[in-house]
Amino acid sequence: MRCVLVINPAAGGGLPAKVVGDVTDHLRAVCEVRTVVATDPAGTEAAVHRAVEDRADVLAVVGGDGIAHLAVQACAESATALAIIPAGTGNDLARSLDIPREPVAAARAAARAIAAGARRHVDLGKIAGTGWFATVLCAGFDAKVNARANRMRWPRGQRRYDIALVRELLGLRTGSVRVETEHGVLDTEATLVAVANTSYYGGGIPICPDAVDDDGQFDVTVVGRVPRRELVRILPSLRTGRHVDHPAVSTLRAKNVRLGGAHGWLAYADGEPQARLPLTIRCAPGALSVVCATRGGPGAEEL
Question: How far apart are CA 256 and CA 183, in angstroms?
Fold first, then answer.
C-alpha cells in the first residue's frame, strides 16, 4: 500500500510541524509513506495532483479545510483514497466524516482503517466551470463571515468565526436570490443561502443539519430577509441546527442547483472563494473515496 503524506506546516498555528513525527510513524506502520512538506498553496496543489497522477493508493493530508479542499480537487473521481489528518481552524470535513480532531489520534485511526482495507464513497458538489467541494457552498452573509475569518490571524479556532460574524453584522445586507432546482424555482430576498453536501461549515455550525454525504443530493438552506436584531436572535440556534425552524428559513433538497441574483454575491465552498453568482452546482454521487476512522455502514468496501 503506497501513501503520499502532504503536510501544511503553517496550519493551526504550526501544529502539523509538532506532530508530523507521530503522524508519520502511525502511517508507516501499515504502508509505504512518501512525505511532502508544502509551504504554499501552489506547492500543495502540485503535490496532491502529483500523488494522484502517480496512482498512490492513499493521499493523506495534514492541515485544515484549505488543504483538504485542494486534496478533494485531486482525488475526485479517482482511485486514490483521501485520508484527512485535521490540524487546522475549522476542520469541517473531518468533523463530518467523524474523524478524530486531534491529529495524532486521527493518524492512528487512519492507519487502522488502511490496515483493515476500508474506504467509503461520499458525494461531492461540482461547480460548473470551477471545481469540486466536499462540505458546504455558501453565499451572502455567511460567505462574508468566511472571508473575514480567512483574513484574520487571531484568535485561533472557533472564536475567529464568532468575531468575524459579529463584525459582519454591522454591515448586514440582503439581496434578491433565485434558487432553481429540478423541483422548481424559489425567488426571495435573502440574507444567505447554503448548498450542503455535509452538515457543517464555519468550524462546526450545522447550517444544513440533516445533510447526508452519500444520499446523492444536496440540502439547501435559505435565510430570508430579516432585520439585524432578528438575525441576532437566530444566530445562537445555528449551533444546534434549530435555525431551520424559524419562519424566515426555507429548506429544500435537490440534485442540481442554480443560484442566481443581480447582486453578484461571491460564493465560498469548503471555506475557499469560488465564483460570483450566478453559478450552477450538481451533486456527483460517490465521487470521493475516503479513509475513515470507522468501518462499516453504507458505502463501505474493500480497498
Answer: 9
pLDDT score at 82? 98
Which of the listed residues 70, 94, 118 is the one where a domain comes to its end? Answer: 118
Do residues 33 and 114 both lie within one domain?
A: yes
Q: In this structure, is residue 67 part of a structural domain?
A: yes
Residues in the chain with pLDDT < 50? Answer: 293-303
The helix-helix angle for 103-116 and 11-28 (nearest 10°) equals: 30
Closest CA to 1 of 134, 120, 124, 119: 119
Domain with 187 in it: 132-284
Question: Residue 46 maps to which CATH number?
Answer: 3.40.50.10330
Residue 11: the pLDDT is: 66
* pLDDT for position 4: 98
Q: For residue 99, is it within any domain?
A: yes
* Predicted pLDDT at 262: 63
The total number of structural domains in the chain stands at: 2
Amino acid 293 reads A
The C-alpha atoms of residue 259 and residue 282 are separated, in whole angstroms, by 11
CB 281 within 8 A of CB 275: no
